[in-house]
Amino acid sequence: MYSRFSPVNPLRLLLIGLLLALARPDLSGQTASSATPASGENGDSLLIRNLFDHALTASPAYGWLEELCKGIGPRLSGSAGAEKAVRWAQERLSGIGCDSVWLQPVMVPHWERGPLERAALHLPGGSEEALAVCALGGSVGTAGQVLRAPVVEVFRLEDLERMGREQLEGRIVFFNRPMEPRLINTFEAYSGCVDQRSSGAREASAYGALAVLVRSMSLRMDDLPHTGVQYYEDAADSIPAAALSTLAAQRLSRALREYPGLEVSLQLSCRNFPDAPSYNVIGQIRGSEVPDEYLLVGGHLDSWDLAEGAHDDGAGCVQSMAVLESFLQLGIRPRRSLRCVLFMNEENGARGAAEYARLAGERGEYHLVAIESDRGGFSPRGFSVDGVEGVKRLALNRLQGWLPLLAPYGLHFADYGFSGVDIAPLREQGGALLGLVPDSQRYFDHHHADSDRLEAVNKRELELGAGSMAALIYLLDRYELGPAGDPPSPR
Ligand SMILES: [Zn+2]
Prior knowledge:
The strands form 2 sheets. An 8-stranded mixed beta sheet has the order 1-10-12-11-13-16-14-15, sandwiched between helices. The chain has 14 helices and 16 strands. The protein is α/β, with parallel strands linked by helices. Zinc ion (ZN) binds next to α10.
């Protein structure tokens, strides 16, 4: 058990109550943002200080992450681990005193890696060398056979068309485009080469390829293969797809230069099963003034099967849960309803995200803002802003106006950008979509690989992220998204 609740300190609560009374918007019709009383501004910075103090000294976030990683472990959709994680999250959200906690049913894909994955390159003369390999999510296996064929190295999907059936039929296609190291934002580098993983098999099968091997999406040179989702269109293009570690990719590439036409053998025991029932987990604190408007914080509860899903996305889950916990512990009653949503199946289908948005639409639940944390539990730098045109502009304007309040905590960044797979379907409802943006340099060392374990997460950095989300939710609840050109400009 790791739930560590700070004992309630009556003096502290009294102080916070006082600050809240000072910080509350004037309810006579004039909003706090237009009045911006000096006491309110001071109240904001003191309250934000309190939220960070709580995150850094009393938050259960890291203990929760330990439970999720060490007590439950991998949580791929449709697995026993995912099922356990659902029950665990429901219990923890109930335990902190949410007004309501519920499960939202959703059918999810069910794929299993199976016990066997093996690849080797075969050198002239009969010797062979093992290559570190793992199946890509959703891949078919090799049907109990050893698939052995000559390898062709390519760098772009467009290379396939140029080479054509003549050079690709009956071969294993090896996609070896590395992440671009000159891009400072590693998510941009990832986006720049993930197409070979997500659609390499589908594209190569059209030219008669027998299987694909893809260089892992990581800038680190090591022997850990990184999995990730890939999609087929139909049974005809369903050829085995696997990732090589960056070192194995380098080795294979060099060997191919020396011995063109070199053969590789591949064995995978993975397979797809019928869809399985699962759930999004939702905890809510009911709003005191506008309960039918929502502020959402969230991450995804599912993870890949190779490790513990610590950064991806255990971190985002416990940070989101910790936002509600901090409001409850500090006695901050939000004006709007504050929801923590732990989405199921982000990794290989985003069915939980689609179902959440569908139901929210059906029920007319307006989300003023949704904040997702799914970029790892690293030092927070700021927030990305997305949404429909006008709303996006208002939200960025607001956020930039608040940066002076957030800068003491290392938050200097606010700009337009994609904010998260799970909240993306809420765009149509017109609210602002924000993403917690931490430092990105080490994320892809661990992303979808065996090293994404609790040990890779720094407790303090994780807590700073939770504090950042709580602070922003507090400001959004207090000031809303006012008209452009009229940010509250607090000091
Ligand atoms: Zn993720």
